[in-house]
Amino acid sequence: MSDWKEIDVSHLSLSQGYERHGITFASLRAADLYDLMKDLQWHTKEEIRAHLGREEDRAALRDLRQSGFVIDRASTGRGDSTNQWRLHSLTQDPRLLRLRSSITGQMERNILERDGYKCVLCDTTADTARLVVDHRVPIDRKSDRTYIRKPGWSDHLQTLCKPCNDGKRQECAYCKIGPGKYRKHCEDCHLAYPERHTFISAAIDADLRDVVRMLADESGVSVDKIVERALLDYFR
Predict the structure, then answer these.
(1) Residue 107: helix, strand or coil by DSSP?
(2) DSSP 36-75
(3) pLDDT in tens, 59-116
(4) CA distance 213 to 210
(5) What is the CA radius of gyration of the chain?
(6) Which single residue of 91, 166, 219, 233 has CA 20 to 30 Å from 55?
(7) 11-21, pLDDT tens digit by residue?
(8) Distance CA 17, CA 224 (A)
(9) Which of 1.10.8, 1.10.357, 3.40.50, 1.10.10 is the CATH number of 18-96?
(10) Other beta carbons within 10 Å of 154
(11) CATH 1.10.10 spans which residues of the chain?
């Protein structure tokens, strides 16, 4: 929106982390999961859900990892993973700690207003789906402690509908890009910065877009570079 303005958040109280047992966790559900897994035994998805009282096993496992704990996943012995997890140890590695700041309702409304109250990926509005405020680059790759209280904080957030947010989370989980490499790759991702790939999104369907992104990853270049090469080859 032309008259949109980023609000000043420097005066807001943005809590980070959750304290329990003298340990700082990324979230309340991470602390709850720690209480279950501190016996260092294997636990199934069903056990985790029963302990949490809700179907947030994947999110809780993610948050516990972001709390600085290494989690093992059981294997069948043939290289296939199973739905059983355990804490590798009770030692918290502060280098792995990725605390998520609380985004206030005022901040959420500011982002929603900027994005026209619609998903930036599919244009879905609040009339047909729940809208959420998403971190462009996942917290486990770039902790928001470095930018969330500074001017320009809104550049790191975007509006997504719940289905697109779930899909982005799943793609990020299986993405081979490791921590610390976000600047080269995540900032070239059409899910994180769709405004940079408007032409690509409009011109090709989802399946072909996935092929283009796979070629870009394999070649170690941006999506735009792959498209540029294809166009140059076509017009030669």
Answers:
(1) helix
(2) HHTT---EEHHHHHHHHTSS-HHHHHHHHHHBT--EEEEE
(3) 899 889 988 999 998 876 665 667 899 999 999 988 777 777 778 888 999 999 999 9
(4) 5
(5) 20
(6) 91
(7) 876 667 788 98
(8) 37
(9) 1.10.10
(10) 20
(11) 18-96
